[in-house]
Amino acid sequence: MVRGAVGSSPQHANLKKFMEYVQLRNIEKVSRFLEKGLDPNFHDPDTGECPLTLAAQLEGCAELIKVLKSGGVHLDYRTKDGITALHKAVRSKNHTALITLLDLGASPDYKDSRGLTPLYHSSMVGGDPYCCELLLHDHAQVGCVDENGWQEIHQACRYGHVQHLEHLLFYGADMSSQNASGNTALHVCALYNQDSCARVILFRGANKEIKNYNSQSAFQVAIIAGNFDLAEIIKVHKVSDVVPFRETPSYTSRRRMTAGPLPSPRSLLRSASDNNLNGDHDHIHGQAPREPRGRQGHSPVPSLRSLPAFGQQHSSLGESRHGEIPDSSLQSTGSSRSSHSRSPSLHHMHEEDRPVPRRSHSHGYPHGHSHHGRLRTPVVMCNVNIKPTVVSSSFTF
């Protein structure tokens, strides 16, 4: 059959019935259709869904996803609006589907129609931070940029997803990254009054002196937005309060990745050969030999610049890379079933690839989270009248 949208024919009725069986998680009937040669890569004309994206939103869908994969489904097959099954699993906060898809070989860096990754979606929708950690542990690239220059760290601060923010920072998110208006994550916290997220990024070394393109610091944005308590938190923060991460991120060993940061393009120059296959022809005809062209290096993601080689200590915590766009190339990788957190602020796991019972992610944070996700660090509540510096009262996000 031809892949694509469902048409109006007896085949159309079969495909509609197939989608119903997927919705009902009727593995026996789904398997029977696939054994008869049905191609599971098609779109439902009413919803725009495909069988795999529909399955990824269902509870207890692991076996169903495996059956679809055995029947020929493409892991990166997208809905009509450009969403993959991995995006759907993250947006529905379905870590079972996420683990299954990664185990089957889905890339954590699939892009939707807007060029956004599952990790970016996870930072927006929040939910179980285990989904965010699974993607990061599976080598998901940090630093995906939307059309307004917002990265995952901006979205986590916008919606107050503190534990997602902690995971992002541990895996190398750039706290100094600026969006199209020049606002850092701390500016976003200041505007939306997200004091818990502001405490976390200040605790981890964010530079509070960075100004946006309206020449406003995060403190000034907080004052303009009327968030005076948060302005006071920013004001009294000192460099001596910073506690950097003392552990390095852990990654799954089931994907082949470069063992360390990518070399700079200068070190990738091909000095012994010419990219032009007609190089000898040029010499024969008396033409000057061409300069060997440098092989274009991988465009480094801004937020990954501070990540060290595996097994080395973290360094240059607050280093920023302004104005760079992350590489759009996808890296196919597999996953870990470990439900233990690999962040230093959570219990560490040493046997990464063995399934173990899940544990809570809401305790043990160094910045003072209680079991309810609140910070133990006392909020500074001073009865002072903060007289803001005379600044422009307009700002753009």
TrEMBL record:
InterPro entries: Ankyrin_rpt (IPR002110), Ankyrin_rpt-contain_sf (IPR036770), SHANK (IPR051569)
Presence of the UniProt keyword Cell inner membrane in the record: no
Superkingdom assignment: Eukaryota
Keywords, ordered alphabetically: ANK repeat
One GO cellular component term noted in the UniProt record for this chain: postsynaptic density
Molecular function via GO: ionotropic glutamate receptor binding; synaptic receptor adaptor activity
Region Disordered, annotated ranges: 251-376
A Pfam family hit: Ank_2
Biased composition (Low complexity): 328-346
Residue ranges with Basic residues bias: 357-375
SUPFAM superfamilies xrefs: Ankyrin repeat
Extent of Basic and acidic residues compositional bias: 279-294
Record bears the keyword Oxidoreductase: no
ANK repeat placement: 81-113, 148-180, 181-213
Protein name listed in UniProt: SH3 and multiple ankyrin repeat domains protein 3
Species this chain originates from: Pogonophryne albipinna
